[in-house]
């Protein structure tokens, strides 16, 4: 039998549990104090107060920097805008190309990057609704970059009674741009503070949030101009482009997109084959603006680059990984031009392996865009005679104006169920609406630029 002394200091299970519970309760009671103390001792972890650095930055009209009032000529992207300016010896053309100082927004005009179009929309919205715009140099001279763009601070007034707001700083403050020598300029400390605040607040380019309009790993989002100018960089890649359908054919379409910087349209032929899903065929129509996803590749059958196939899912409308409708019933450009605008120039295009080099005799940058020509005199005609050809009955019209010639090529045309023949156009003066296309004679490596017509109504006879 155990004596009383042997029980001294012994902790029973019940008492041990009571002490543990008391300790847990004490720790929970102390936790708010510990957290509060840590926040007080570490300001970086405490909640930041948002600062409007734009409102705190003032335009000093008496400073040595140069200043000039402006209006928008062309919106390019988030950090580039073309402006009309007042009469000035410095800008005799009456306009300038501005590259915003201290900021670098994601790309939205070539190889398009996440948040690029969002940044471009932000810049456009601010300037479009501005009551006044002022451009400021960083020093006492108008400095330019290697692309002859002026490096500027862009100020605007939201309304006539407002103070000037610095758009460069506002773009940084809202998280639409990365740093670009942000601390090495007139407003350097403010730029860095705005940039750091946007980073701390996880805004847009600084966040882990994904741009809902960007396809990420599923495709490379590019402009048609970028594909046209740098085809070898995208050979075999899945790409996403957008534009207005200038013409839909039985197995493909001509898609064109306006480039604001060059102030012209660029076009691309898209071959989707003969098995287009019915749900897609309802919006893959001439005049509709579409977002198209497919494979960019060199097509040996035509010795040219084009987009093949279609990435489409009827269950995912609007998903940037798939082809979808942007807007219905848009206006096809049919850019007015003269024969020389289409036929002047020469461009050589190589296949990926370099075995085929095709020479395009004409304006290669206009290829696959819609155009209109007026007052063409038909001086010769020919018709595809091979009954085995799918083009049996298609017409070629040799046309002349101002000493220049061009070929207008039709598909097989019918009117009221009757085949339209070349006799209708012989010796006539016509106006034409069509798409710039190219034709390479069999066995040749020289592609002739021509205008292709797809309907009877596209040719007007005088």
- What name is given to the CATH topology of the largest domain? OB fold (Dihydrolipoamide Acetyltransferase, E2P)
Largest sheet: 5 strands, mixed, barrel
Spatial strand arrangement across the major sheet: 1-2-3-6-5
Helix percent band: 10-25%
Short structural summary:
By secondary structure, the chain is of the alpha+beta class.
Provide a descriptive summary of the structure in words.
- The protein has 462 residues and is α+β, with helices and mostly antiparallel strands.
- It folds into three domains: 54-206, OB fold (Dihydrolipoamide Acetyltransferase, E2P) (Beta Barrel), CATH 2.40.50; 216-327, OB fold (Dihydrolipoamide Acetyltransferase, E2P); 335-461, OB fold (Dihydrolipoamide Acetyltransferase, E2P) (Beta Barrel).
- 18% of the residues lie in helices and 35% in strands.
- The protein has eight helices and 26 strands.
- It has helices spanning 13-41, 53-56, 116-128, 167-173, 188-200, 224-229, 278-281, 339-343, and strands at residues 67-77, 80-85, 95-100, 102-104, 132-137, 150-157, 165-166, 178-180, 220-221, 238-248, 252-259, 264-271, 289-299, 304-308, 324-327, 335-336, 346-350, 357-361, 370-383, 395-401, 404-410, 414-415, 418-419, 429-439, 446-453, 459-461.
- The strands form five sheets. Strands 1-2-3-6-5 form a five-stranded mixed β-barrel.
- Helix 4 (167-173) runs parallel beside helix 5 (188-200).
- The longest helix has 29 residues, at 13-41.
- The model is unreliable at 1-15 and 20-43 (pLDDT under 50).
């Amino acid at each position: 039998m155990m004596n009383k002394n042997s029980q001294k200091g012994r902790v029973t299970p019940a008492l041990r549990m009571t002490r543990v519970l008391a300790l847990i309760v004490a720790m929970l009671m102390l936790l708010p104090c510990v957290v509060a103390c840590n926040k007080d001792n570490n300001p970086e972890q405490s909640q930041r107060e948002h600062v409007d650095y734009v409102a705190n930055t003032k335009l000093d009209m008496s400073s040595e920097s140069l200043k000039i009032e402006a209006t928008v000529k062309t919106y390019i992207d988030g950090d580039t805008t073309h402006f009309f300016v007042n009469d000035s010896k410095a800008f005799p053309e009456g306009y300038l190309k501005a590259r915003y100082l201290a900021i670098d927004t994601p790309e939205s005009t070539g190889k398009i990057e996440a948040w690029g179009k969002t940044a471009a929309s932000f810049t456009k919205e601010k300037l479009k609704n501005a009551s006044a715009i002022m451009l400021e140099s960083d020093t006492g001279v108008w400095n330019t970059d290697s692309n002859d763009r002026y490096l500027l601070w862009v100020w605007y007034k939201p309304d006539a009674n407002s103070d000037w707001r610095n758009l460069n700083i506002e773009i940084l403050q809202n998280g639409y741009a990365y740093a670009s020598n942000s601390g090495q300029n007139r407003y350097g400390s403010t730029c860095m503070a705005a940039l750091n605040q946007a980073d701390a607040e996880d805004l847009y380019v600084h966040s882990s949030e994904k741009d809902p309009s960007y396809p990420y790993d599923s495709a490379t989002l590019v402009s048609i101009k970028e594909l046209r100018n740098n085809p070898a960089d995208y050979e075999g890649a899945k790409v996403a482009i957008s534009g207005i359908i200038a013409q839909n054919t039985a197995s493909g379409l001509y898609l064109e997109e306006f480039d604001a910087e060059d102030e012209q349209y660029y076009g691309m032929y898209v071959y989707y084959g003969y098995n287009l899903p019915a749900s897609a065929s309802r919006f893959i129509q001439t005049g509709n603006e579409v977002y198209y996803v497919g494979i960019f590749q060199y097509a040996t059958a035509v010795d040219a680059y084009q987009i093949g196939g279609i990435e489409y899912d009827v269950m995912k409308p609007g998903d940037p990984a798939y082809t979808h409708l942007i807007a219905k019933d848009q206006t096809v450009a049919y850019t007015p031009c003269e024969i020389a605008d289409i036929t002047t120039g020469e461009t050589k295009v190589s296949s990926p392996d370099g075995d085929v080099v095709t020479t395009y005799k004409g304006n290669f940058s206009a290829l696959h865009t819609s155009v209109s020509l007026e007052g063409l005199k038909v001086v010769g005609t020919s018709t595809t005679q091979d009954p085995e050809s799918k083009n049996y009955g298609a017409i070629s019209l040799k046309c002349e104006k101002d000493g220049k010639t061009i070929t207008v090529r039709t598909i097989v045309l019918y009117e009221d169920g009757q085949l339209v023949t070349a006799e209708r156009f012989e010796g006539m003066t016509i106006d034409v609406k069509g798409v710039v296309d190219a034709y390479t004679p069999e066995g040749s490596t020289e592609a002739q630029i021509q205008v292709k017509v797809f309907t009877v109504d596209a040719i007007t006879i005088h």
